[in-house]
Amino acid sequence: MPVSWADVGQRWKLKLTQVDWYLFFGLMFLLFVLLGLSMAALKLNLVVNDADALPIESVVIKGTREKTTDEEIQAALRDLMRRSFFSADVNQVQAALEALPWVYQASVRREWPAKLKVYLVEQQAVAHWNGDAWLNIHGEVFDAPAEDSVGPLPFLAGPEGQSQIVLTTFRQLGELLDINGLNLNSLSLSPRHAWHASLDNGIMLELGREDKMARVQRFINVYPTLVKQPKPVATVDLRYDTGLAVGWENAQKESH
């Protein structure tokens, strides 16, 4: 039986109608899924950033502390603790703690469900630097208030950026003097790179720019002779290729 063009058109119209409904329902389903995901993401974001919903309940501090108090740590973290557990930036917490004067390094990590764990390493001062600053064991300069728990330390001085060189030189000269029964009390490097040292017995050493170790050894060699003199030694100028010049304490007082 022959099929008319009208029948063909009717069939295609029916198929297109079915396809349109399938497409419509498919798009509606996809829209509802995306809407649901968006709402879930928004709610999750609100919870994550809501300090009341998931607050930081405690901060555990580990590490040996002698100079950094609990009050200083609480003050440093006060604003950061108002955030939620997830929104708290551990890098900001670390930076806030390392900004404390006697803190050398801080490491911070989250611990579920609502705790921050902090490990602190304090500065280890080995010398005074340029009067009111400090040097740590790495020769790095840091500023911190005076601390009673820090024992007597040597006094070092020098131009900016020379702290490590000065500390290294102090250790080298100090070791040489120590094995010979003498103690180095202070060392300074002038802007013209000349070295000046003083011993704990009050003797000042002028070492100049070069051959510091050799010049100190020259002083050590003549020291037994110097202390036998009737007048106390005030200064020893070692800035000579051979020999030295001695300044006597009484002579300096008389000149004043």
UniProtKB/TrEMBL annotation:
<keyword id="KW-1133">Transmembrane helix</keyword>
<keyword id="KW-1003">Cell membrane</keyword>
<dbReference type="Pfam" id="PF03799">
    <property type="entry name" value="FtsQ_DivIB_C"/>
</dbReference>
<dbReference type="GO" id="GO:0043093">
    <property type="term" value="P:FtsZ-dependent cytokinesis"/>
</dbReference>
<protein>
    <recommendedName>
        <fullName>Cell division protein FtsQ</fullName>
    </recommendedName>
</protein>
<keyword id="KW-0812">Transmembrane</keyword>
<dbReference type="InterPro" id="IPR005548">
    <property type="entry name" value="Cell_div_FtsQ/DivIB_C"/>
</dbReference>
<dbReference type="GO" id="GO:0090529">
    <property type="term" value="P:cell septum assembly"/>
</dbReference>
<keyword id="KW-0472">Membrane</keyword>
<dbReference type="GO" id="GO:0032153">
    <property type="term" value="C:cell division site"/>
</dbReference>
<dbReference type="InterPro" id="IPR026579">
    <property type="entry name" value="FtsQ"/>
</dbReference>
<keyword id="KW-0132">Cell division</keyword>
<dbReference type="GO" id="GO:0005886">
    <property type="term" value="C:plasma membrane"/>
</dbReference>
<comment type="subunit">
    <text>Part of a complex composed of FtsB, FtsL and FtsQ.</text>
</comment>
<dbReference type="Pfam" id="PF08478">
    <property type="entry name" value="POTRA_1"/>
</dbReference>
<keyword id="KW-0997">Cell inner membrane</keyword>
<keyword id="KW-0131">Cell cycle</keyword>
<dbReference type="InterPro" id="IPR045335">
    <property type="entry name" value="FtsQ_C_sf"/>
</dbReference>
<comment type="function">
    <text>Essential cell division protein. May link together the upstream cell division proteins, which are predominantly cytoplasmic, with the downstream cell division proteins, which are predominantly periplasmic. May control correct divisome assembly.</text>
</comment>
<dbReference type="InterPro" id="IPR034746">
    <property type="entry name" value="POTRA"/>
</dbReference>
<dbReference type="InterPro" id="IPR013685">
    <property type="entry name" value="POTRA_FtsQ_type"/>
</dbReference>
<feature type="domain" description="POTRA">
    <location>
        <begin position="54"/>
        <end position="123"/>
    </location>
</feature>
<feature type="transmembrane region" description="Helical">
    <location>
        <begin position="21"/>
        <end position="42"/>
    </location>
</feature>
<comment type="similarity">
    <text>Belongs to the FtsQ/DivIB family. FtsQ subfamily.</text>
</comment>
